[in-house]
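Exercise 7. Given the components listed, write out the predicted structure of the assembled complex. Treat all entries as one system.
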Amino acid sequence: MEPSTVIERPKASDLQAPDERIRDNRARWTMATYEECFLCGRGLTEASVNKGWWINLGTDGTLLPEGYFESADYDATLDQGAFPVGSECAKKIHRPFKFKRVTSG
Ligand SMILES: [Zn+2]
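Answer.
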């Protein structure tokens, strides 16, 4: 059975911080950061981007499970790409909807 239909996928909008918080964080972190957390906009260091949690966003606004891209039912039209999330926001996301980036070398 395909995991994407067996497990209900969380909606990114249900996990995201309110707009005001995103703005505040963006203003505060602008100069010092490498990337932003997809959910709250808080700045992430290069180390946390490389070693921290990521999510796969679907075009329907839901999170795609880890391993989806290697699965037989992969559909490129459903894929909006992968984005880093901070450690605090990652606590709101259960596996398999968050994953660690695989780095080699
Ligand atoms: Zn965050």
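Discussion: The chain has one domain: 3-100. The pocket of zinc ion is lined by residues 37, 39-40, 42, 85-86, 88-89 (CB under 6 Å).
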